Amino acid sequence: MTMRILVTSFGPFPGASYNPTPELVRRLAALRRPAFAEVALIPYVFDVSYGAVDRDLPRLLAAHRPNALLMFGLAQRTRHVRVETRARNAVTQLWPDAAHTRVRKRAIVGDSAALTFGPHTSRLLRAALGTGVDARLSRDAGSYLCNYLSWRGIEATCRDGGPAVAAFIHVPLVARPGVSRLAGRPHRITMDELVDTGEAILLEIVAQTRRAAFA
Question: What is the largest CA-CA distance in the chain?
Fold first, then answer.
């Protein structure tokens, strides 16, 4: 049976006219490796809005019934790859989303402090570190759309028929294709390195999903 993995990214958003995650996901979905011979990679780019996540994620889950969900987002202020370990029950009221929506509540739901992705995040970190990049576990996915999608993704794993494994990876800003420097300074991670790291994480997601199938 073919394993299905939904691999998502976000488009540009206020304050980030360039988001490298769609290109990262596009290149990951185009990989042709023996390890992916029986794996269907389903790429998707979310608009950076709460409405888009609430509309599109349930639709994608129902249409594709993925066995795993791997999500990528941009963390402009960090220079390393962040493997998120949890989603906080928090929504920012400071910044509107790309649809100019300002939320009126500070929490996603009313009865929980946080949701965790699970112990597999440590294995994802080891996979990332194995490619030579600076990667770290993170307990704070922020309070914007990345955290919101993380929350909804973890919720999906708790439902019957939902993905067995979910993960959210924050990546640093890299130069646009064809540009060697960022704002006059050398960047620390290149897009090619991000793709290598994303591939290693994806391979570990495949392994973790197969383990879950036989648990």
Answer: 50
Chain segment 28-77, per-residue pLDDT in tens: 999 999 999 999 999 999 998 989 999 999 999 999 999 999 999 999 88
* Cβ neighbourhood burial of 152 (10 Å; 0-12, 13-18, 19+): buried
* Separation CA 124–CA 127 (nearest Å): 5
DSSP state of 146: H
* Two tokens, residue 119: 């112990």
Q: For 84-104, how does the pLDDT look when each residue is reduced to its tens digit (9 = 90+)?
A: 999 999 887 666 666 666 666
The three-state secondary structure class of 165 is strand
Distance CA 111, CA 122 (A): 27
Give the whole-angstrom CA distance, residue 24 versus residue 143. 23
Strand (E) or helix (H) holding 116: strand 114-116
What letter does residue 140 receive in the DSSP assignment?
A: -
Structure tokens at 176: 């646009």
CA angle (76, 7, 78) in 5-degree steps:
15
CB-based burial label for 196 (10 Å; 0-12, 13-18, 19+): middle
53/95 Cα distance (integer angstroms):
17
Range 11-38 burial, b when 16+ CB lie within 10 A, else e: eebeeeeebbbbbbbebbbeeeeeebee
pLDDT in tens, 153-189: 999 999 999 999 999 999 999 877 665 555 555 557 8
